Amino acid sequence: VLGATHTSIVITTAVFLDLLSSPPELGYYEAITEEAASVFHKEEDFWELKSLYKLTRIDSAIRESMRHSPLSGRGIMKEVVQPNGITLPSGQEVPFGVWLGVSISGISQDERYYPDPHKYDPFRFSRARTEFALLERNKKNGNDNNTATTTATAATTATDKVITNDKNGVDVDSLTEPIIGKADDTADRNKLNGSWLSTTSEDFGAFGLGRHSCPGRWFASHIMKMTVAYIALNYEIQPIHDRPSNLIIGDLIIPPRNVTIRVRRRKTLAQGHDAHSHTQPAELS
Q1: Phi-psi region of 171 (alpha: psi -120 to 50; beta: other; left: phi over 0)
Q2: Residue 134: which region, alpha, beta or left (left: phi > 0; alpha: psi -120 to 50)?
Q3: pTM, to two decimals
Q4: For residues 71 and 93, what is the distance between their CA atoms, to the nearest angstrom?
Q5: How far is 230 from 52, CA to CA, in rounded Å?
Q6: If DSSP codes are grouped into helix, strand and coil, which group holds residue 260?
Q7: CA–CA separation, 71 vs 204, rounded Å?
Q8: pLDDT tens, 19-42?
Q9: What is the spatial distance between Cα 61 and Cα 67, in angstroms, rounded to a whole number?
Q10: What is the tens place of the pLDDT at every residue in 212-227?
Q11: What stretch of H or E contains 101?
């Protein structure tokens, strides 16, 4: 399936290059492996849709790579079809037949939309959801708002742990289902629901926007998450020193084709904290 969807291959390759070129002491790859091991206990779990929704870290890592290394510098391209052209809000006249688009790269590196936009942070999008789940747990346990907020922030800043019913007593649905009527206001709900890989928005145009956005983005996100999880569970991969520069061909931005990565199959499948790795799980901030 992946062989027939070149965009998914390109994005997945970028995900691994980004993860593996990060400082090893941050343990990003190990954190990804830990999450996959906490979700996939048997082969049948790979075919359960609910399993894929639990991969909040992997979902976030893929979305971050798409932000950090978009497939194209331009996107949401539209042709002017009005015979007399159009007039932009700035007053500029655009004639019939001209194509217009937005700078995907420019938006993804804009600090108005993303704090510290030039930094690669694979858990940028999952962290808020993790904090919210911890906050809900603390409120449920009777902590006041200030205590709950402080505890949730401290916990996610320190470890960004995978949340499961077994480990932390947090209903995993608070991570995997849309946030409806739980967050303090509509803006908070929209922020959390808008952090999923397949969600389109004005500040994340990788899949387009509006009624013409990519109709296959859910399928693509599922395939990529399954691929990343399977590789993490089954293979140890040696970190690389520097992130190889992307190759730019016209409007396309793709990973270089001459990079060699050393991998070996794990002797046994990774099992949570017992994953075969030389780096301890990360302290993520």
Answers
A1: beta
A2: alpha
A3: 0.75
A4: 29
A5: 12
A6: coil
A7: 12
A8: 999 999 999 999 999 999 999 988
A9: 10
A10: 888 888 989 999 999 9
A11: strand 99-103
